[in-house]
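Reply to dn_fold:

You asked what the input looked like. This is it:
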Amino acid sequence: MAIECKTALELLLAAEPTELAGQGDSELAAHIRECKRCGAVAARLLAGQGELAGALGELGPRTDVEEALSVARARRRRIGWQRRGWRVAAPLAAAAAVAALFLARLPDGRMPGEMVLLPAPRIEPAVEAPLAQNVMVFETRDRSAKVIWFY
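and this is what came back:
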């Protein structure tokens, strides 16, 4: 039973290179040998596969499976050491930062976080009272008016 061109064109995309070359005894190979149109499409697909294989071969050297596995294992070990290194390095870095805070001094010689006692501001008296008498000054909502109480 011979296949039609429509079916052959659908099968070309999944065909083996030997079938695309018209070799073998499959119905697709027989159709490619007989039909010039499908044979030309198959030849273009084979040429494209050859170009792709050549381009992929130029990208880099091929390695065998054992070599690829050893490279992957070495990389995994290296990444494992890096992760373990952070488990040790992160707490050490935090401890060093805390120690630096305790040992650091500000430019004026104080320790960070040390309480600063400033002298009380000097307030000039607004009201003079006679000796041995106390004075109390109250501010009101009106800034121009103050209540002065002598006691």
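The first helix runs from residue 5 to 12.
Hope that clears it up.
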